[in-house]
Specification:
Length: about 230
């Protein structure tokens, strides 16, 4: 069982910036480095798309995972909402036929919304349900870990979206054996919200998120009899 973990952004692409000088690319790498040892040793081989502060185009990330014959691709991000600092919470995404893509989330240079959805529709017939269940398992376990430890982070739920990093993970690329992997994207909080940022700057909080994501992945795999 191979799981590819993707710490969002990196290098010249800092991602979101927020309160307390937090930077998305640093948070995501920190959380992924915490998840990796939690997954290893459970019949799970873990690969990271980046291990240092390096830039990697979002389409190359899931292509890399596909080339590794990954079974699961989990991308970690921190959210932002500009001047709308009141918005907070954790949310988890999966690619769906019902997704409504927003600009900047399209696959590569595909700019036609209908085209994106047609691509998603043609590729998700066999694994849409499992991707949703993976996202739900991860999300539920993250929220559970935080609530159990006294944090009241807003639960924004599991959502469908055509993020290109997820869409690309479903596009067949040349490989000896055709392979489809399940993909999920986790937004661990809004760093443009002061309360979320205050939590995310704490190492114990990030550890709880890592444990929640790890438990969510393992529980999903166990329930499906894959480990």
């Amino acid at each position: 069982m191979c799981v590819v973990l993707d710490p969002g952004h990196g290098g010249k692409d800092p991602g979101a910036k927020g309160f307390f000088s937090l930077c998305e690319k640093d948070l995501t790498l920190d959380v992924v480095n915490r998840i990796k040892p939690l997954l290893e040793g459970s019949s799970i081989h873990v690969i990271l798309t980046r291990t240092t502060d390096q830039e990697m185009h979002r389409l190359k990330r899931s292509e890399f995972a596909y080339e590794q014959q990954a079974d699961l691709f989990v991308s970690i991000h921190a959210n932002s909402m500009g001047s709308r600092t009141e918005i907070s919470g954790i949310e988890t995404f999966y690619l769906s036929r019902q997704a409504r893509p927003q600009k900047n989330y399209f696959l590569g240079n595909i700019c036609d919304k209908r085209h994106v959805l047609q691509v998603a529709d043609s590729l998700l017939k066999n694994n849409n349900t499992y991707s949703r269940l993976l996202a739900q398992s991860i999300h539920n376990n993250v929220v559970h870990h935080l609530v159990r430890n006294g944090f009241s982070t807003k639960d924004r739920g599991v959502r469908q979206e055509a993020y290109c990093v997820l869409l690309r993970s479903q596009v067949p690329i040349q490989a000896p054996i055709p392979h489809m992997m399940l993909a999920s994207l986790v937004e661990i909080g809004y760093i443009t919200n002061e309360e979320d940022a205050a939590c995310l700057r704490q190492s114990p909080y990030r550890q709880l998120i890592a444990e929640g994501i790890s438990d969510g992945i393992k529980k999903f795999l166990c329930e499906k009899g894959l480990i």
